[in-house]
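Notes to self, ABC transporter permease:
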Amino acid sequence: MDQLALLLAATLNAGTVLAIAGLGLLINERAGIINLGAEGLMLVAAIAGFATAVGTGSDVLAFAAGAAAGAALAAVFGVLVIWLNTNQYATGLALSLFGTGFSAFVGIRYTQERLGDRMKFEIPGLADIPLVGPALFKQHPLVYGAMLMALALAWFLYRSRAGLVLRAVGESPESAHALGYPVRRIRLAAVVAGGALCGVAGAYLSVVYTPLWVEGMVAGKGWIALALTTFATWRPARVLLGAYLFGGVTMLQFHLQGEGVEIASQWLTMLPYVATIVVLVLISRNPTWIRVNMPASLGKPFFPGS
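result:
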């Protein structure tokens, strides 16, 4: 029972990184912009958050620094693809490569740094419930924050006027422009907001999840978060569930190793990525279903004057 509680707790912890980044990318894609640079954004935010935590000792400031770094890089990406009409896919890949190299360069002096003892969190009373308590009620506040973000984003997209406008921009920017909405500014705001969430996810990874700085520590989580949006058919609640599914697969490898299961570590390391590929293949078997749920203008440039 204790091992199961630890596995569930680790699943929520690992899934939080994917959930926050996935929700950020969902905002991007609902506005019609696909950002393949999530990996780079998260890496730059991870080193920004870690450096801030080392320098100030404040996790709050570390998350703020991560969000600011992610938002700043996303703003550059947004200007390039929205105003200068560069190719979204090529620009996103360039951003990912830049973030990987830049974070490695900046992070050299922080490789040996260690953060102090992490604060322990628990909800009084509930944390003492057998199995459920250690699994669900001894988590970092941002774990619960990710759940609230998913609910808030679902409300925003489907219950608010601003969310309706955002979805309209993603479906038909020409129609939204004809109605007088500033399509480019709305898209830029969505890209910056999505980048900020990717930044929070990166900072969480280096400040809470590990907590240390290692070159390339995002290790493909940005790509998995990107795949999550398709897996979830662009629905916030499904992004959350998918994040915990992939988080569970990730933690399962460590659990099996701890139990002494005789499987090569390379096979266990492959599990999250194999699961990602399998899920995407299964979803791709029904292209009509994807086409119905996918924002119609996703990845397509918009020229106001044309």
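- The CA atoms of residues 78 and 188 lie 6 Å apart.
- Residues 2-114+123-293 form a domain with the ABC transporter involved in vitamin B12 uptake, BtuC fold (CATH 1.10.3470.10).
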